[in-house]
Records
---
Amino acid sequence: MRDKLRIFPKGKNHWNWKGGLPKCPDCGKKISYISVRCIKCHKNFAISEKAPNWKGGRRQARGYIFVYKPEHPFCDYHGYVAEHRFVMERILGRYLLSTEIIHHINGIKNDNRIENLKLFSISEHISFHMIGNKFRKGHLPWNKGIHIRK
């Protein structure tokens, strides 16, 4: 059992003496008997191509697709960028500003075809949605909770 957990007692006189603390296979830093890698290498390994659960650098969260681009200036803490923003940046040939919003025309968040994406400023995007709600059939613009009965 102790061999499977890689927990070995310390001391040169013990039958299982390994010659000191094991080393991280990536950087060579000394680690505890329980660990396989040091903390820094483990974090890098967990989000790289070497990880067993690597899915090509794409993940889905809140309906959007995120791609792994750690060199991108606006990537998140884990190195991911929203794919719809990345697609629009490639078309425009520049990075998007933080005040620019990408709108999915058909409302499907993971449909990142260029013909489905539209670039808005924050105020334009709010106006676009307000106009759409205001003139919806049977909807009173001054109170979103009240609908006209037909």
---
Amino acid sequence: MSTPHWTPGTATAIGSLPGTDPLEAARTVAGELPELPYLPELPARGVGADMIGRTAALLVDSTGELRDWYETAAVVVIGKSFRGVGGQNPVEPLLARKPVVCGPHMENFRFLVEELVAENGIKQLASDQELIPALDQLLADPSAANRIIKRAETVLAQHDGANARTARLILNWKPANLAQKATRNASRSDAGGRQDGKE
């Protein structure tokens, strides 16, 4: 049995893997390092909660708790992005200043992930086969993890104030503009219907 080079107490939080046994999901994270203790799940912080801080990989599979766990993570893996469809929002762990590793299925956050990948602000893998080497590299080289965090911050900074800008656009939108647009769209629909022989 090899000696783990991951520091006990390092928690790796990952989201749920729908349709996958929690033990299988935990083994995906712990992978080639079976001697590492891991918690397959933490239902309502019950069974196994006393092991937090002594585990190398922590699988959090409950809605609404991930934000609280990001602070304990050295690296955040978006588990759903390997086997599920759509992925999970990478912004919360990035704002917690954690390097993020995700799989190929980040469809719901495609534009942001494309920006992050282009700037090396997230580590997107083609398959879960690449997960263990990626985690090994990030955990063994904190400076590499910090470079990812800094690049992610640069990408996210471009989006600062987006809610305020959107709210201003909505608040400055003139009802006349909306009525004009609705009239134009209705005219186009009517014209298209007549061309098709429909009334």
---
Amino acid sequence: MNGYNKNIKSFIQISYIKLINRLFYNPGGQVFIINKNKALSANRNIKDNYKLGIFMMIMSSVCFALMAAIVKYIGNFQLMEIVLFRNIPSMIIMPMLLKKKNIPLFGNNKFILSMRGIFGMIGMIGMFYTYKIMLLTDAVTIQKLTPFFVIIFSGLFLKEKICFQQIPIFLLAFLGGLLIVRPGFRIDLFPAIIGLFAAISMAAAHVTLRYLRLSDHYLVIINYFAYISGVTSLIILLFQRNLIIPSLPDFLVLIFLGIVGLFSQITLTKAYQLAPASLITLYSYLEIVFSIIFSVFLFREMPNIVSISGASFIIISGYLNYRLRVPDQKI
């Protein structure tokens, strides 16, 4: 009789989990209501999708490279005004999408969501500042330190395994980045420190994305980031009285920056939800490769053999890292 009751109890628990997943599960791998331990346990059992996560990171790299080029192009605007317009499309679109999908606006893990927004905002402001002040190649080089901090943070806070064989692969990727950007080291100390701090902040924000996959929908995460960054930049502009109404051509460029930024956040967030941070973060180095492509078409700058060699190192290191992390999967 006890065994019969135990089977009935087990059947009810399994049926409950299936019901929760049927009602609240979505392709991104989130359960919208995570107040029940059973639902959270079911969500943790969702398998990662390495290939799709890598694809999302590559698309994110495209968007971030384009965004860097746009920021450099409109560098005459106030920094906070660029940050504001970068977030305006997200601030308009995200709440409508959340309402349409019946997703709670404020999410579940409000503290981590807020931390992700704050870290992301600090990183974005510092990153945009370096794009405006420093040579773009120098700024990109400092930004590419972010993956190294992501690996450290994911090992410390997410307990993701970091194998010794990854170290030479990351060094090869960073060497490829150096060959591409060939940075000059005659830079002012203060912008370099700001860029380094931005890289650390962006790494912390990236790691929280992996953590939040267990509790919140990716649209909620993006919405938090957009409003924390957008409202903060607007308050600073109003306090400093530096808000300038742009001309129509500049307005269109700024709105385009916001749209590109929205897509960069969607793809970045999905990438970290679909695969381990220590695996996919390496593919953010492809942003350098795409920056060369945009430089050719937008600024008529042709890469030389050294840049091509650097791009090859990055692609090779990405392949080696993928095979090391998922040796049993076929590409």
